[in-house]
Amino acid sequence: MSASSTPGPSRFNAAAESEARAVLKEICTSAAWVDELLCGRPYPDAEALLAASDAAVARLDESGLAQALAGHPH
User: Fold this and answer.
1) What is the pTM of this model?
2) 72: alpha, beta or left? (left if phi > 0; alpha if psi -120 to 50)
3) With contact defined as beta carbons under 8 Å apart, do 36 and 52 qualify?
4) Distance CA 5, CA 36 (A)
5) How far apart are CA 8 and CA 24, in angstroms?
6) What is the torsion angle, in degrees rounded to the nearest 10, for the CA atoms of residue 14, residue 10, residue 55 and residue 34?
7) pLDDT at residue number 8
């Protein structure tokens, strides 16, 4: 997403799905996590987005966790 004066959650909520997906993949490489956060849009505030992220991580199965961890440096 390009720089903007619009606050983070608002920019994320308004972003095209492909753009928001690319941003999320930079944060976590789990496809399930990315899909869940995209489906939860719009988020009213940063706290809601972070809570949704935490909940999505908690629901990852073994495969999803492996996929997420594979994206982190060793």
Assistant:
1) 0.84
2) beta
3) yes
4) 26
5) 13
6) 30
7) 67
Judged on CB neighbours under 10 Å (0-12, 13-18, 19+), 34 is: buried
Tokens of 59: 């629901």
Angle at 66 between CA 60 and CA 70, to 5 degrees: 130
Query: Nearest Cα to 38, choosing from 54, 21, 58?
Result: 21
For residue 8, give the nearest of 58, 56, 57, 42 by alpha carbon.
42
Q: What is the pLDDT of residues 14-73, one digit of tens each?
A: 999 999 999 999 999 999 999 999 999 999 999 999 999 999 999 999 999 999 999 877
8 Å CB contact between 13 and 42 = yes
